[in-house]
């Protein structure tokens, strides 16, 4: 089965098996930021943007994205790096395994709601599993990033 998608701004055409997941398709095309920790849609590690909306790539067949736009962290390097520094500054990158999914969902949150409350942040990121940090560092990083943006990019260190 031949599919064609816009992957990180480039057209990709491939012959796939009908049961291939989007996760496997992306990994086959060098998108190694996309990880799979559960294969049951419970961890958020495989989050990508499908037509600018966050989706779990382990739960979507690649055939379903034919003709659509898919973005991974590889395609959002500048945006991801800017926010990722705030996560690292708060010590929330201990093992780093969950960071790509967490960053993708945080970017989606910021695009949808530039000024989320603490409760809205927690609700939006509820589907992200992190086994080593307890989420406090990520939450501090998100709040610091929001403060940074609200201050026009001036560094805010607590």
Structure, explained:
The structure is a single chain. The chain is an alpha+beta fold and 158 residues long. It is built from 5 helices and 5 strands; from the N terminus they run E-E-H-E-E-E-H-H-H-H. The chain has a 5-stranded mixed sheet, with helices on one face. Helix 2 crosses helix 5. The mean pLDDT is 88.
Strand order of the largest sheet: 2-1-5-3-4
Ends distance: 53 Å
Structure class:
alpha+beta
* Major sheet description: 5 strands, mixed
**Number of E strands:** 5
What count of helical segments does DSSP give?
5
Helix content: 25-40%
Instruction: Give average pLDDT, whole number.
Output: 88
Shape, principal axes of CA atoms: globular
Low-confidence stretches: none
Rg, Å, rounded: 16 Å
The proportion of strand residues reads 5-15%
Order of helices and strands: EEHEEEHHHH
Quick structural summary:
By secondary structure, this protein is of the alpha+beta class. It contains five helices and five strands.
Short descriptors:
158 residues; alpha+beta; five-stranded mixed sheet; 5 helices; 35% helix; globular
List the helices and strands and how they pair.
Blueprint: E1 2-7, E2 10-15, H1 22-28, E3 47-50, E4 53-56, E5 69-71, H2 77-89, H3 99-112, H4 118-124, H5 136-150
Helix pairs in contact: 2-3, 2-5
């Amino acid at each position: 089965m031949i599919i064609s998608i816009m992957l990180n701004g480039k057209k990709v055409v491939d012959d796939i098996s009908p049961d291939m997941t989007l996760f496997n398709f992306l990994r086959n095309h060098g998108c190694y930021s996309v990880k799979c920790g559960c294969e049951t849609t419970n961890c958020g590690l495989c989050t990508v943007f499908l037509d600018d909306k966050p989706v779990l790539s382990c739960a979507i067949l690649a055939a379903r994205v034919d003709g659509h736009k898919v973005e991974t962290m590889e395609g959002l390097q500048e945006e991801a790096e800017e926010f990722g520094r705030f996560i690292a500054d708060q010590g929330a990158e201990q093992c780093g395994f969950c960071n790509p999914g967490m960053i993708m969902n945080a970017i989606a949150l910021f695009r949808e709601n530039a000024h989320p409350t603490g409760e809205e942040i927690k609700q939006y990121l509820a589907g992200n599993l992190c086994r080593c940090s307890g989420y406090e560092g990520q939450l501090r990083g998100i709040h610091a990033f929001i403060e940074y943006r609200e201050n026009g990019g001036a560094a805010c260190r607590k």
